[in-house]
Design a protein that fits this description.
mainly alpha, Growth Hormone, Chain: A, 2 domains, 10 helices, flat
Length: about 290
């Protein structure tokens, strides 16, 4: 338990402080030390869990990572989480800093996509139960990647209507991707490993989200600052920073797309579960 707190606490704090580390100074050095402690703690934690796993006493059994379809689905999820959190935290900054939208308008821009994603997710689950993950995951990741590349072309004159359209496209891709990937990953495991697989996914998604957010905001801030120093206006500089962050997010989503080509449906059998069952398992093991 102490090793897990040291490892994951240090990693989350250190990765979320990437901007401070890049800038240097006392705060940056402190964050770098915490990150280093987290990395060392993680290595020790993995070594200890592998040793205890051979005796059946592991706090977090790492055997799910030996199952290819679980690991492939997990890699896609981690890449998507990094791109997702990075883009969704950059988009409001761009809207308010470059397009000069108010906080209310910013929220309204994001509202239709969020509502549509929630509406479509149950239908994605039903399609998954009939046809498996590939008809959903591959087009969904491609749609997500395409919308991020679309965002990487925005500027300070981009219309609110176009941004709503891009965000809706992004949300449709997530609706087609997220639940099927979670289901595919867990349904690839024997039931005795569900809780460990769920814990691994939850932990890595949090780390990916923290990393994606920190990296994209750092890119946004530094590119915008460089543009301002070069004489660009505030809105134009913030647009340049946002484009760079969205482009990096799109590249990360592109990695997810390549890996998603290898996702397969687990053969039907005793360990196969449907979407609803996996959702219940995730609620039981957050």
């Amino acid at each position: 338990m102490p090793l897990s707190i040291l490892a994951f606490g240090g990693l989350v704090y250190g990765l979320s402080s990437v901007g401070a580390i890049v800038e240097g100074g006392q705060a940056g050095r402190g964050a770098l030390i915490v990150l280093t402690v987290g990395v060392v703690g993680l290595l020790l934690f993995v070594w200890r869990q592998l040793a205890r796993g051979r005796k059946g006493q592991a706090l977090l059994d790492l055997r799910p990572l030996a199952i290819p379809n679980f690991t492939i689905s997990l890699v896609v999820l981690v890449c998507l989480c990094g791109a997702l959190f990075g883009a969704l935290n950059t988009l409001p900054l761009y809207l308010q800093g470059s397009v000069l939208a108010t906080a209310l308008v910013t929220g309204l821009v994001l509202l239709p996509g969020g509502l549509l994603e929630g509406f479509l997710s149950p239908f994605a689950g039903r399609i998954f139960d009939r046809h498996g993950p590939r008809p959903l995951v591959i087009p969904g990741v491609a749609l997500t990647m395409g919308s991020l590349f679309w965002l990487s072309a925005v500027n300070e004159h981009t219309s609110i209507g176009l941004l709503i359209t891009i965000h809706i496209t992004f949300s449709i891709g997530l609706a087609a991707t997220y639940t099927p990937l979670l289901t595919t990953a867990l349904s690839s495991l024997p039931k005795r490993l569900y809780s460990h697989g769920s814990a691994i996914m939850s932990t890595l998604q949090q780390l990916a989200g923290a990393t994606g957010t920190a990296v994209m905001i750092t890119i946004y801030s530094r590119v915008a600052a460089a543009a301002r120093a070069g004489g660009a206006s505030g809105p134009a500089a913030f647009a340049m920073g946002a484009r760079s962050a969205f482009l990096v997010s799109a590249v990360v989503a592109g990695v997810a797309l390549v890996v998603s080509l290898f996702v397969t449906r687990h053969p039907k059998g005793p360990s196969n579960v449907r979407t609803a069952a996996v959702a219940q398992e995730l609620r039981s093991h957050p």
